[in-house]
Amino acid sequence: MSAYQALAEAVINGDDKTARAITEKALAEGADPLALVNEYMVPAMDEVGRRFECNEYFVPELLLSARAMKAALELLRPLLVKSGQQSAGRVVIGTVKGDLHDIGKNLVAAMLEGGGFEVIDLGVNVPPEKFVEAVREKDAQIVAMSALLTTTMPSMKTTIDALKEAGLRDKVKVIVGGAPLTEKFAQEIGADGYSETAPGAVALAREKLAA
Ligand code: B1M
Q1: Whose CA is nearest to atom 10 of ligand 1?
Q2: Does 85 have pLDDT greater than 60?
């Protein structure tokens, strides 16, 4: 599908109109929505991150690229969700306190919905008490947390501790992910599982509920 390299370039250049137009064209030509995300859009955001690290890009460019990514995802999300089957369980998902990155979390939420889960999305900058409240109110079986900043990763542990204090830890499976995380970190904070990717999070959620 190298035909859609222009989609990656539109994301890198922060050109939301072109990103949307190419996505529309690709879908009309029968492109696989997940392949568009994994082969073009995610690598494009990695390139944006690389440019940010070398001071070629600054926060305004990150925002434009995020906007272009979201414009394309708006078209893809319903298709990612549509592939789902029967109800598989209830998930409370959010990006942890202090962290405003939501593109990866939104992808995970869409894939979980596509995998048949009922998803309660708490958004970004979610404090531990909000996760606890949602688990209690919605009677969720899974808590899914995302973090993109090394500085916000500790909030995952704080949230797990808050679930323990509320007497809810044994009632839910906690899964975590996000670019700076590792399997080792997930184990250290007492999460039930870690996934590097959005599709992997669906398999993980299924596996944990079956266990
Ligand atoms: Co920021 N940012 N950012 N940023 N940003 C990063 C994360 C950074 C790596 C860039 C860099 O320096 N190379 C860096 C973090 C460094 C670190 O912590 N070590 C960084 C920084 C420093 C910052 C600010 C501090 C910058 C500043 O203000 N000086 C600031 C912090 C704001 C805050 O959160 N409090 C900031 C702000 C922003 C924007 C708001 C401008 C924007 C976000 C817009 C938005 O999300 N609505 C932004 C962006 C766009 C990025 C990069 C370029 C792209 C992130 C992204 O969307 N990737 C990012 C660099 C990078 O990641 N290469 C960067 C695409 C997305 C699909 O991937 O989210 O990793 P990702 O999700 C993947 C997997 O990780 C996984 O599935 C997804 C798909 O497979 N996954 C899970 C994610 N969650 C999961 C949960 C799971 C399982 C899998 O289970 C529950």
Answers
A1: 49
A2: no
Q: Model confidence at 158, in pLDDT bands (50, 70, 90)?
A: very high
**Contact call for residues 118 and 89 (beta carbons, < 8 A):** yes
Query: Is 48 in the same domain as 29?
Result: yes
pLDDT at 93: 98
Ligand 1 centroid–CA 148 distance in Å is 5
How far is ligand 1, taken at its centre, from the CA of residue 202, in Å?
A: 20
Indicate the pTM of the whole model.
Answer: 0.90
The answer to whether residues 65 and 95 belong to one domain is no
Kindly give the number of the ligand 1 atom that is closest to the alpha carbon of 57.
53
Q: Looking at the structure, do residues 123 and 169 belong to the same domain, yes or no?
A: yes
As a whole number of Å, the end-to-end CA separation of the chain is: 38
Final residue belonging to a domain, choices 34, 63, 82: 82
How many separate domains does the chain show? Answer: 2
Residue type present at position 20:
R
